[in-house]
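Section 3.1: Structural characterization of target chains.
Under the original work plan, the team committed to producing a structural model for every single-chain target entering the pipeline before any wet-lab resources were allocated. The record below documents one such target. The sequence was received from the expression subgroup and is listed exactly as submitted; it comprises 500 residues.
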Amino acid sequence: MRLRTTTCIMFGLLVSLSARADDQHTAVPIDIGSRRELFVDDHLIERMTGAIELVLHHPTPREVVVVHDAPWEGSGGGYHTIFRDGERYRMYYHAWQILNDEGTAVTPYRLTIGYLESPDGIHWTKPNLGLHEFDGSTENNIVWTGNKAHDLNPFIDTNPAAAPEGRYKAIGLELDPHELRAYQSPDGIHWSVMKEAPIMTTGAFDTQNVAFWDDARGEYRAYIRDFKDGIRDIRTATSQDFLNWTEPVWLDYGDAPVEHLYTNQVRPYYRAPHIYIGFPSRYTERTWGESSRQLPGWQWREKRHGVSPRYGTAVTDALLMTSRDGLHFRRWGEAFLRPGMRDNNWAYGDNYIAWQAVETVSDAPGQPPELSLYATEDYFTGKSSQLRRYTLRLDGFVSAQAKLAGGELVTKPLTFPGNRLSLNYATSGAGSIRVELQTPDGEPIEGYALADCDEIFGDQLDRTVSWSGKADLGQLAGTPLCLRLALSDADVYSFQFEAE
């Protein structure tokens, strides 16, 4: 491989560093505009030196927000869809009793789609909708039954061309016949099929299938389930009208290992919509041995194993993957969400993260808003299942993290239109961050060298960087430059050039 050489001043010393010659795009400045950029990949990173690396973070478990214990919900409450709609949050999910009350036999399919509402994303209610009958009564929160509706995953259609009757749209699998279909609703409650013919026929579809209008790219995009050489995997397709779709193609995970992926949960991240965030559930077959017997819920697990071996030995956790084009994903191998020490959380079907994260107000006084994620637990167990809320700082999926010994990150050449630089960061009491603005050939820009930067320490979502007390970067707007971040016992989650 041919190498080229660049130079940068690092701690007052002239250091010669090598970079790959086949990364020719690094010589062409990347126009990031006023976008918020997350360190979920190395797309903008030229190099890192010292004790610094990209680190995956994990959500914090909070309270159980929903218990699926109504007669029509059963032990299979799953495939949750959650989004904020004005002053309320909406939740949709499929419900069914997987096994009989004793856990010794499969029950006949009786799938329904339930609906919940919340004023804050934390406290949820099951409205009595009176729309669909279950065991002779319409006093329930069932929003759709269809032809054995397997999943229904709505979204608000922000396509400017969307008709009022299609303000809410969804895709989902119906089991009789086995078809992926398109739905619409004027209010998110009353749903109808958009056309009788299926919208896709390539795919297994036997999990949560999602679709949305992509504002940043001006198209609908869907992510659906299929099997690739016997492995559970994910395909994607696009559409201009939500009814006619391209042939689904397989996602590309680079050098990530081949693993069974159940759900996908892909959606543009609302604070950086040019970046797709996904929380696929990873399905792992374990052996029936001593560790399986040591897992919580042994009695239920043994009964389920008698119905189907995988009901007793398979486990699921959740991963994180990100993409900038919707096709090529960086997938982290380590679990984003582990099953943990809670009882009955090690079954196949547990730890499925809902589609998708939403912003909620912190319940701690004076604290900034945070991300709430929701994941299934107690799947398969008894007559009910439940949904637990987890929290994560805004943009807090991955950080550029340095040890106390210190490390540096230098970006590729960038251009921007704003006049200030903001960081989402955290340090220890002894940690610090300084930022240098460099020319593309590594020379500090006068007045913006590392020594000029006012030391940053603390923990903030939006901290303006300043140099000798001055934060205005208006004179550098449109000028190609590199960011040099010098960190010590610190994390940087995202940055953004903004206009004031």
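The radius of gyration is 25 Å.
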